[in-house]
């Protein structure tokens, strides 16, 4: 039942974002739109930004299902870009209304799991500390998020497949090399 409520809140937020900016939407607007009480909202989220973060992470998690391996990470990244594009009104509204730091944090959570899965897979059988694995995943996460933020800022005009192709060419073999460099 609780996931149903969260999804209803997400749907209401996304519907409302088609009509007005995030900073003009209230919790009452959202709860009235989906027909639940304010108490139910606060049971699940501390504020609207918490709901926004949950929406971003939830959409990204759906996009990444089963795409966290070395052989499928480009497909996973493509699906993250596609999920962002499918939710363009939502993302653009959020991008304009929240601080860059908050937007980065939403995207960091989204991309970290993709990269950490790849790093973890490539580290099997190698003597790499958990701290070093996290460092490698964080390093690439920052690159992905920087590219994605620039793409969002430019209105999501660049073709997703071309963009992911450029990222793939840039990173070809570098994650493996990074892991080898950290192997003790």
| Rounded average pLDDT | 86
Shape: elongated
> Main sheet?
none
Compute the CA-based radius of gyration: 18 Å
- Following the backbone from N to C, one meets helices and strands in this order, namely HHHHHHHHHH
Question: How helix-rich are the residues, as a percent range?
Answer: over 70%
What is the end-to-end distance?
Answer: 48 Å
Q: Pairing-aware structural class of the strands and helices?
A: mainly alpha
> How many E strands?
0
- Continuous helix count: 10
Low-confidence runs of at least 5 consecutive residues: none
What is the topological layout?
Layout: H1 2-17, H2 27-34, H3 38-44, H4 48-64, H5 73-86, H6 88-97, H7 100-123, H8 130-153, H9 160-171, H10 174-182
Protein name: TetR/AcrR family transcriptional regulator C-terminal domain-containing protein
InterPro entries: Homeodomain-like_sf (IPR009057), HTH-type_Tx_Regulator (IPR050624), HTH_TetR (IPR001647), TetR_C_Firmicutes (IPR039532)
Domain HTH tetR-type: 14-53
Would you kindly provide a written description of the structure presented here, covering whatever features stand out?
Helix 4 packs across helix 5. 77% of the residues lie in helices and 0% in strands. The chain has helices at residues 2-17, 27-34, 38-44, 48-64, 73-86, 88-97, 100-123, 130-153, 160-171, 174-182. The longest helix has 24 residues, at 100-123. The model has no long low-confidence stretch (mean pLDDT 86). The protein is built from 10 helices and no strands. The termini are far apart. It is mainly α and 184 residues long.
